[in-house]
Design goal:
binds pyridoxal-5'-phosphate, globular, EC 2.9.1.1, alpha/beta, Aspartate Aminotransferase, domain 1
Amino acid sequence: MSNDARRAIPKMDVLLAHPWLVEQVETWGRPVVVTAARRVLEYARLDIGDGHELPSLDDLAQTVAKAIEALRAGRLTSVINATGVVLHTNLGRAPLSAAARAAIEDAAGYSTVEFDLQTGQRGKRGTAVRALVCELTGAPAALVVNNAAAAILLALSGLAKDREVIVSRGQLIEIGGEFRIPSVMEAAGVTLVEVGTTNRTHLSDYRSAITDRTAMLMVVHPSNYRIEGFTAQPPLSSLVELAREHGIPLLHDIGSGLLHGSMGDEPTLEDSLQAGVDLAVFSGDKLLGGPQAGIIVGRADLVTQLSRHPIARAVRIDKLNLAAMEATLLSHLKGRLDDLPVWRALKLTPEDIRPRAETLAALFGSAARLRRGVSVVGGGSLPGEGLPSVLVDIDPAPISEAVAMARLRTADPPVIARTEKGRVVVDLRTVPPEQDQLLGEILLAMLKASDNPT
Ligand SMILES: *Cc1c(COP(=O)(O)O)cnc(C)c1O
């Protein structure tokens, strides 16, 4: 009997002729669909052997389509970020400006990455971007690498290998993933010397830890957490003075790359350079609003030394990010922060957001309400603080919030939102206004269609 049932399993051709799979073939090509279909048919054969019933042709086609969708789900997919977290680490941090995207497109083919058009000779990678960083920041020299973690590894290994670097205990942070200051020191071959306590470190702590084995002082901005209450850290300028007295450099990891101005407690590069640090390091894809990159600025002799280190070659920036970084720096130089999506989002006031939120909420009638709330800067910037916003708070009943969120994640494009107390919470700060309507349509379709399969 099971042999008969097995014989009833549709042939590959028949399955592939199912309209759902014809569509999949159009999207993904025949080999992908055939591979998935072969596996599904094989499982059906095994199931029947175990005494299960033969699935219908529709069931089989749906299983194949789902297997292919799962493949798609693992790939990079552009999403609507309705969380209000501006620098969302899991969603690629800074969205790029139109100019940066165009620059990437331009650089993607053959481009003058290491070619000097004037002389026809080999050029140096990143010459223009280094000049732009210097012009923008007033720093004497600059180097741009793959990310800030790489920049720190390079600086530690290049300037302090086999020697000691002094850091305050309150600054031994974990940025995320495997990036912890003590581990990076170890990876760089540097001996970490911790001074002070978690909440209080004094200049004298640094002073008494300096020996002839000391290569450097390091100051790390504890970007993603905050110590409050009975705290003390010596001012940067007095640490700079101490380092100078002993003829050793001071490295400042400022994290989020706020160039100047003021934003909560965020350190600015301008203040850091004014205090006289020898080297400062920051990320390209946080408050700078550019692509993933790590930027080192400071003393020309040290920057040159680092640029010649073998690790510099291993962590160099690729041509696409180089192109996007040039475009981003140009926007800063022209004073056109509004060109950068990060800054457009950061500058929105509740008054800017409210009319958009009202239009969105109106789609849901009594199931939605507006309320005041806060958007998060993210990327380790401004911990414990937020930007006032107007949130759209939607009751997903009769479906649960978990089902609603799952449906939003499988929409095209996927929508990532927040939930709070069983409700779906949308913060339009991180949604480009031109996507408001599309977002409304997706939310309506996903939340209202109660027979919509998830
Ligand atoms: C984010 C951050 C880093 C790591 O930067 P990446 O560019 O992600 O490598 C290092 N230090 C501080 C203080 C940070 O905030």
